[in-house]
Amino acid sequence: MKCLFCASEAFPFMSSGGLADVAYSLPCALRSKAIDCRIVMPLYEGIPEEFKSKMKLSTYFYVPVSWRSQYCGLFEINYKGIIYYFIDNEYYFKRPEIYGHFDDAERFAFFSRAILEMLPKIDFKPDIIHANDWQTALVPVYQRLIYSHYEYYSKMKTVFTIHNIHYQGKFDKSVIKDIVGVEEKDSFIVHYDGCTNFMKGAVETADQIITVSPTYAKEILNSWFSYGLHHVLQKSEWKIVGILNGIDTSIYNPETDIDIYENYSVEDLPGKTINKKELRLRLNLDDGGEIPLIGMVTRLVEDKGLELVKEVLDKVMKTENIQFVVLGSGLKEYEHFFDYMQGKYKGRFSFCHGFVPELSHKIYAASDIFLMPSKFEPCGISQMIALKYGSIPIVRETGGLFDTIKDSGDQKGNGFTFKTYDSLDMMNAIKRAVAGYWQHKGWEILVKRAMMCDNSWKNSANKYIDIYKNLVDK
Predict the structure, then answer these.
(1) pLDDT per residue over 309-319, tens digit each?
(2) Domains in the chain, start-ordered, CATH in brackets?
């Protein structure tokens, strides 16, 4: 079976978030199970030269974008056994930032149409075209409305994954005619609530809709989670399924991770203590001995539950004998808040601006507890990484957090959870976790149970393959 994975970013070439990790690790997992999965993404200016120098030009052609005809070069590279295709057009993609441009609708309409136009020109005919998020949401739209009428494309099935429904690709209504370029009789497919909505088009036309966790598949049918798209999703509920993302255990593994201070395993835990000691030195935290270290690695945005953290963190620092480290960047109000906390609790609180991959690994390895109180969380991988490194997660019961973390109050769970989006509930979970930490024998059992959780792509990849096969058989 052949699958083309369409994404606006992919590790290690260009990354701004979790989509890039999935676009690398899921195809790897599918490939290991004899699925010929290849990846297509834009050729951005910011892709490192070490990769660009190894790419070869396969072909070039012209792509219709409504009334326009735009040049497209197609480059490819084999990276760790997987073929990546790169859509090249300097007008659209030779820019320092991936997203946030005035013409993003046109840029990704071009990208989506170019994906389908390239297929007859390469030696690869996929059974499944797997699009991801709004940037490739027009792929199933174009396949259904335009390309499926041609024999070459007629048997290709489309899958669309919603990684985060907050970002739907909403634009002015005029975009339908001027950029999307579908016939007027079909314009309703991408028109919704007075605007052009790329994601709505994919929900209408894809053969299968996937979300990145089972709970999120149910949540987005509710208006509180759907950002206005629940009416469309409810009509398509029959084709929506949730499959948990996984983590790449060749990258996130305390036994082999070259970015941490000391490797360790579930059978050999003392190395975790060394990581804690060394991180304290690096971040100018006091040598607190056994005092628990709570970590956060997160984007500093409201969806990550930072309003709850702001409400009670000062009280937690005053009442609990803990240390705290935060790594992330985002909204200035949160950055200023964590700067203030660092100044107020010198030696006990550290705020590290930005996202530094090697430092994130060190925080996972050094922390005893990992706080992730998200307001919404389609899947989340940080809690899975924390489990792998023996950092016990505290999470709110939403989306993929609910699917992966179960409260240890029954002596069987792998973390600490709270239900409502409420700062006092979160604080209570923190207090329970800290109290549990001081029960040394029980805590070690909990750490080992967490580290033995299997959140690799193995099981999830099998579920994707089952979906692919069912679509092809139909």
Answers:
(1) 999 999 999 99
(2) 2-246+458-473 (3.40.50.2000), 270-454 (3.40.50.2000)
